[in-house]
Amino acid sequence: MASLISKPLPQCERHMNQVQLLFCEDHGEPICLICRLSQEHQGHWVRPIEEAALEYKEQIQKQLEHLKGLRKSGEEQRSQGEKTTADFLKKTEIQKQRIQCQLEQFYRFLEEQEQLFVAWMEELGQTIGQVRETHGTQVSKYTALLDELIGELETKQCQPEWELMQDIGVTLHRAKMVTVPEPWATPPEVKEKLHLLYQKSEFVEKSMKHFSETWRSEMETFNGEYGGGSMCWLGVIVIFPYAVDFWALSRREKNTCNKGRRKVMTGPHKLCVGLVGWVS
């Protein structure tokens, strides 16, 4: 009461010189004694303003504590969010560097395989060239022999009888001994290498098609479905079932080539990079 008297008390706007010492809970406003007796406040819950103020101060204190608790919780959540996002950024950077490293290794691997394949193709081309040269030499010798015999027979045919009959038996025998040239036959070594070439070329085409389709499909899913969601896959699938060891193709023995193919299937060039990610 003393605290209220020490300050000028608010005057009632309706009743002059009347101090608002009461509080009407129904209307939620301070009133004076005359207002309390008026018809407007009949049956209302009216009590001293000091008593009402004390209770409302307690309610204010409770609300302050509640709001301060909410603010503290919000600050803790913001701190946790900043910590979590910082962790995500760190993981993202690590995954980015890891993927870049893997892709660079994959590029180098493809370049190495291309160089091996080109070298093997050049070697195969040289082998085919040597076979063609050898066969051409044989055909040239055969043709030269035929030209020689044809020339001798044409000369004999135009000679006088006594000269024609000299060594006629030897000449005819030589002509009869000439056989039909053997048909062209692809050497087994070349045939085997060509078979391996078609086989491995088909393998490369199918593997690259599978790789391209898988890459495109996974990246479309990555960019479309998870681009803005809470699930972040920070990885990439690189599927290349197994690499071709083209040096194995240059082996000439069939068993060696078979071993080379087995090496291709199980060798260290097999590449399968898994999908790395996390869910926030």
From TrEMBL:
One of its GO terms (biological process) is innate immune response. It holds the Pfam family zf-B_box. It is found in: Cell projection, Lamellipodium; Cell projection, Ruffle; Cytoplasm, Cytoskeleton; Cytoplasmic vesicle, Autophagosome. The keyword Ribonucleoprotein does not apply. GO terms for cellular component: autophagosome; cytoplasmic vesicle; lamellipodium; microtubule; nucleus; ruffle. It comes from Equus caballus (Horse). This is Pyrin. InterPro entries: TRIM/RBCC (IPR050143), Znf_B-box (IPR000315). Residues 7-49 form the B box-type domain. PROSITE patterns: ZF_BBOX (PS50119). Keywords: Actin-binding, Cell projection, Coiled coil, Cytoplasm, Cytoplasmic vesicle, Cytoskeleton, Immunity, Inflammatory response, Innate immunity, Membrane, Metal-binding, Microtubule, Nucleus, Transmembrane, Transmembrane helix, Zinc, Zinc-finger. GO terms for molecular function: actin binding; zinc ion binding. The chain crosses the membrane at residues 226-249. Homotrimer. Interacts (via the B box-type zinc finger) with PSTPIP1. Interacts (via the B30.2/SPRY domain) with several components of the inflammasome complex, including CASP1 p20 and p10 subunits, CASP5, PYCARD, NLRP1, NLRP2 and NLRP3, as well as with unprocessed IL1B; this interaction may lead to autophagic degradation of these proteins. Component of the AIM2 PANoptosome complex, a multiprotein complex that drives inflammatory cell death (PANoptosis). Interacts with NFKBIA and RELA. Interacts weakly with VASP and ACTR3.
